[in-house]
Specification:
The structure holds two protein chains of two kinds. By secondary structure, chain A is an all-beta fold. Chain A has no helices and eleven strands. Classes of the chains: A mainly beta, B mainly beta.
Amino acid sequence: EAGVAQSPRYKIIEKRQSVAFWCNPISGHATLYWYQQILGQGPKLLIQFQNNGVVDDSQLPKDRFSAERLKGVDSTLKIQPAKLEDSAVYLCASSSGFSNEKLFFGSGTQLSVL
Amino acid sequence: RKEVEQDPGPFNVPEGATVAFNCTYSNSASQSFFWYRQDCRKEPKLLMSVYSSGNEDGRFTAQLNRASQYISLLIRDSKLSDSATYLCVVNSYGNKLVFGAGTILRVKS
């Protein structure tokens, strides 16, 4: 079974530039999550989709971050403009159910903002 | 108070030792609890779910104490390969999963 696919694996940008990350969840998984993990911290939920609808985006900095999941399958997360404090690993995860199910994570995108 | 709190460690133990981690949570209505393992520069992976009656998987035992709002993870006969960060995960307000900051375990020969 294919896992959660993410790209790119690494990204280096300068502050104020924009960047986009892509995620393709496990086939058939209705729930998709984007987490931000800053070095030394646990993953922090940015946004949760159930199919193509947003379930929770309370911790998404909406002035600079946006995410979409068109057609309820793959998803993109965008940052525009980036700040130094956005340097982190961005993890995409999917699950078959709704929050109480096992999460399967992708390998993540390591973002460095200079 | 943070929703999920863990002792960051690191816990440095010799091979064969028994080690235990605790995790406290703030939402008394939480119903689901998990331990995830994260290796250096890798993604988190589910280690085990934590049930009200406690559960055991080989050398790993997880316990839930609802009255004191904490969960624990016990690792017996530690192996070098157990070295990792252990993340406590709790479903919180709005039924979202909240991760703790993680506890670092280093097993040394």
